[in-house]
Amino acid sequence: MIFSCTKKVLDKLKKYKPIEIVKEEIGPYNWYVDLINLERRNYFLFTHSETLFSFFVYAGTKDQLKNIELIFAQKLQEQVIRDIGTLEAYQEKIFPSEDLPHRFIKTNNRSVVGSMVDFKNQLYAHNEGPGSIIDKYDLLNQMLNKIPMSFLKYDCPKKRMKQFLEMTEE
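^ that's the sequence the OP posted. Answer follows.
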């Protein structure tokens, strides 16, 4: 699994994870990561590089930063089950074989990063109003994947992720 991280994320993770200096193209196991601050708490926004399927997770403690891969995998599995379905084939397609290492690199696709900025602006706007982020956390994560995106020719990430997961099914 490849995590293409913005500079803010790399600065936060460099104490705990090795950072590689390579350029990777968009691929099925490439997730872009950006930092977002909501209600004075830091969250990582994960976005799939091909489908723009996105979710955010709290990333404020040392333990969470050290185990970011596990937190990512748990939340991704939860989001796929909630938004797309529970087929075992989906889980196999999302998570590559166990021997694929987790790599942390710098972002190199401005279109994906620009889409992430749009997602962050949506999160800021939808977080306004009554209630805390904790109350709206799951709702905001679901909302992200229903937004039509120009990168996807005005298709929504939820639909594209479903197509991606069903692409190799027999």
